[in-house]
Specification:
Blueprint lengths: L11 E3 L4 E5 L19 E4 L6 E5 L4 E3 L17 E2 L16 E4 L7 E3 L1 H5 L3 E9 L22 E10 H8 L7 E6 L12 E5 H5 L4 E6 L2 E2 L9 E3 L12 E7 L6 H5 L2 E3 L17 E3 L6 E6 L5 E2 L4 E8 L5 E7 L7 E2 L1 E2 L9 E7 L5 E11 L22 E7 L1
Parallel strand pairs: 7-16, 20-27
Antiparallel strand pairs: 1-2, 2-3, 3-4, 4-5, 5-6, 7-8, 9-10, 10-13, 11-12, 11-16, 13-14, 13-15, 17-18, 19-21, 21-25, 22-23, 22-26, 24-25, 26-27
The structure holds the ligand Nc1nc2c(c(=O)[nH]1)N[C@H]1C(S)=C(S)[C@@H](COP(=O)(O)O)O[C@H]1N2 and molybdenum atom (MO).
Length: 404
């Protein structure tokens, strides 16, 4: 079933916290052809402070960015996707007296930081893609359980904050430290649900690349995206990018909880990882780490009519920080490929725009594909790499256009 024919309905949702205005999406809002039965309907909803986003669930809030949010290489704050695991999400008012405590058994001391304390440390900036491990899970065939994301559980922004390594230096790191764990201000509604707490390897925490950011694209973080401060782990999937971070612990042994030991894991050795997370490996599985090479066609839209006089194929490509080496486009379902022109380089962790001028003279139905290759030679596969949790969907995607 093509996405354009997914049922949509317009409705008004009343919730305790906010009245959410549902929005009748234009056909352009939904490009991915989700397999039949994956998602019965796609409703776009206006959360406070956001443009219409595609609603996956309200409690916990899970909303994805529609395709039109990806026509620029930086994703607007008010179109940036929203992902939570736990339904008890904090309001801006509840975070007015926010502070961050850094400690743990392998920290030299426990130190409390206000936002002003953090802002007094040297400031750093990175442009980086935050992509949910389960982005495109809804495109898995056969289906896998979990939030049925389409293409929009990702976004690229300029993040500004301080280095985690500078913050950890204030508390001190003892010999024997192995991981650094984060937790946010959100929590479960029922006590039985494990709190969302995630860790990263000590070397990654100390290498200067991980930020505690209070600014996104030049503005304070939206509440939905982690106000007042969130963790930025450039190159790694969004699961480690803890929002509303309130506590950081330096650990002497690997973090053992549901979110590390059971969720966010992939079959061992199946996906390329230049930065493995060895303290969390077991015999069969590894924690998901870096984003694998991927691309998205943003124009034309799937099903569009294009001129026989030629048309331009546009999109984005990204990976976990090796950088995009090339994007090839096919107009004939993969028989022939030509190189697209790469656009502005916003940094190795960022979306890389690309475009391809399709020559005049083609008529009829065309199957258009894009295939990105990164600087390490990793290339998007033609066939899905099955894994039980539906992570790392980076299969070459196709759109169909009619030229004439
Ligand atoms: N506090 C908190 N931080 C969190 C999560 C969460 O549930 N709670 N989810 C993580 C996951 S899985 C993703 S993909 C990203 C999504 O970031 P966003 O909501 O800003 O788009 O946040 C991460 N940080
Ligand atoms: Mo995620």
């Amino acid at each position: 079933m093509p996405a354009q024919s997914l049922n949509r309905r317009s409705m008004l949702l009343g919730t305790g916290a906010a009245a959410l205005l549902a929005h009748r999406a234009g056909a352009a809002a939904l490009n991915p052809a989700l397999p039949a039965g994956t998602r019965e309907e796609a409703i776009t909803v206006v959360l406070p402070g956001k443009q219409p986003l595609i609603k996956l669930s309200w409690r916990p809030p899970n909303y994805e960015t529609p395709l039109e949010g990806f026509t620029t290489p930086l994703t607007a704050n008010n179109q940036f996707f929203v992902r939570y695991h736990l339904a008890n999400v904090p309001t801006e008012a509840e975070l007015a007296n926010w502070s961050l405590t850094v400690g743990g058994e392998a920290a030299g001391s426990e130190v409390k930081f206000s936002l002003d304390d953090l802002k007094g440390l040297p400031v750093s900036e990175v442009t980086a893609v935050c992509q949910c491990s389960g982005n495109r899970r809804g495109l898995f065939s056969p289906h896998v359980p979990g939030v049925q994301w389409g293409i929009g559980a990702m976004g690229n922004a300029v993040w500004r904050g301080v280095k985690l390594s500078d913050v950890l230096a204030k508390a001190g790191v003892k010999p024997g430290a192995v991981e650094v764990a984060f937790r946010g201000a959100d929590g479960p509604v029922v006590e039985a649900t494990p709190v969302f707490r995630k860790s990263i390897p000590l070397d990654r925490a100390l290498d200067g690349s991980v930020l505690l950011a209070w600014e996104m694209n030049g503005e304070k973080l939206p509440i939905w995206n982690g106000f007042p401060v969130r963790v930025i782990v450039p190159g790694w999937t969004g699961t480690y990018w803890i929002k509303h971070v309130t506590r950081i612990d330096v650990l002497a042994k690997p973090l053992d909880n549901f979110w590390m030991a059971k969720a966010y894991r992939v079959p061992r050795g199946v996906f390329p990882a230049t930065q493995p997370f060895v303290t969390q490996d077991n015999e069969k599985t590894s924690p998901i780490t870096e984003i694998i090479v991927n691309s998205l066609i943003t124009a034309p839209l799937d099903g569009a009519a294009v001129g026989a006089a030629g048309f331009t194929v546009r999109g984005l490509a990204w990976d976990g920080g090796q950088g995009i080496a090339k994007v090839d486009v096919s107009l004939d379902g993969g028989a022939n490929w030509d190189a697209a022109a790469l656009g502005e380089d916003l940094g190795r962790f960022a979306f890389r725009p690309w475009s391809f001028a399709a020559p005049a003279g083609r008529t009829g139905s065309l199957t258009v594909l894009a295939r990105a290759t990164n600087a390490a030679g990793a290339v998007q596969p033609a066939k899905l790499v099955a894994n039980p949790a539906g992570y790392h969907h980076n299969v070459i995607a196709a759109i169909t256009v009619t030229a004439g």
